[in-house]
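look at this:
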Amino acid sequence: MQRRNFIKLSGAGVTALSFKPSWEFMEANPSMYSFPQMVGEVTQTSAILQTRLTATNKMPENGFDTPEALLAFDIPGAEGTAKFEIADNPKFKNSEVSPWLQATSDRDFIIKFRVKGLNADTHYYVRVHYGPTTSLTKKGPVSEFSTLQSLDSEKPTSFVVTSCLNLGKFFLGGGILRAGSKSRAAEGEDRKLGYPALEAMENLKPSFWVQTGDTVYYDYPNKGIAKTVPELRAKWHRQMGMPRMERFLRHVPVYLMKDDHEYRYNDSDNVENGKQPSPQTARATFLEQAPIAVPEDEKPVTYRTRQINKHLQIWMPEGRDYRDANDKPDGPHKSIWGKEQLEWIKQSLLASEATFKLFIVASPLVGPDDASKHDNHVSYGGFQHERDAFFHWLKKNNLDRNFYIITGDRHWQYHSIHPAGFEEFGTGSINGQNSRPGRKPGDPNSTDPLGLIKQPYIQEEPTGGFIVVKVSPPENGKMAQMTLETIDEEGNTLNLEVKEAK
């Protein structure tokens, strides 16, 4: 690691952190916690380390039985100071540390630091030193992550993709007619721990997690729509404070995307219509809560691409910040992505040398979807023109080969093939209470009433779950392969697609 980014933990620093009276003070006054801890935006050489200093690290033992109880609960922050320690070994030998950083109310007591100068394909361990002052500190739990492989690496890799984390429906139930047997409110140990899918995902030991959006629902429960900054923040506190989530974030680095529900409200755009939160507040809150940028970033953007190794590159475009109004007539001047981002998408795709190109979006490009929707690329009167022009451009530039799409947003799991040949995999919602029956090609109430889309798979019964992606190098005379596996929230495989490089 480069010395200009981290300061060696040595000499007086070690003495101060191990000073016995300081430790005894914090043990006798355990009123401050580093909670939760997470790592985001990992590259070959950098990552964003994040934590929040809080006055408690506990959620209610049995969850929440009413919307009122859910919405009334929050995890209060605590003013203090903290620094991150990082090493390539669990004993933190030859570790390096960040400067001391202040946890203040104006930033929701969140502390972030972008560490640079890391080595590619290396496993790192992180812990936080924190307290009310630099002389009264303790250590938080250990987090871990691996940097991305070098660009020429051919080692196997795997990661998970999810969407639609509705904590309200998890505790209160999702509605029998919409979600079938999985609609019942969480029971037993799940009420204490949180989404079972997180445990199933952690057992797979993925390299990272892509959460495509709807990480929180500002507009659910319906009688408690979050509008003010404290209400928006509380949604994040509750979601990230569940035990399975807190543990998962300490072991798996994340790329968080956003969609409508953690932007403003269902199907929201950027129209200044007096509804709260405003687009400005929504963007600022996401940048504050997600490990996607640090306060020092002057003009942070939330679209990005990562080349994972020689055989895989992923794209994560931004679907809310730059969009035109949903009710604007569809045509060449209507866009979800905006001119600047669309140009970036095209140029980065043209520049990519990765075998597989995986386009991960917050809302669908193929579908089919409900005919009543108007806010996405498959919607009637929505943004179909931009989608069609993009698909045409991909084919014209021979980029349709080894190009696949994963989408969130839709609450059912599926694999669909557009008439132009583009394949899309839907993650579905992470929890069964938020799932529902899907739309099939030929459904008169879908965006494909003529049945032009092929659909090799759609889940038979609504359930929560996720997609795990695995990429393996050429071997035994075969080309590189990408596997897309649809899994339910209990860890059972529902569908498996193996794509060999063409």
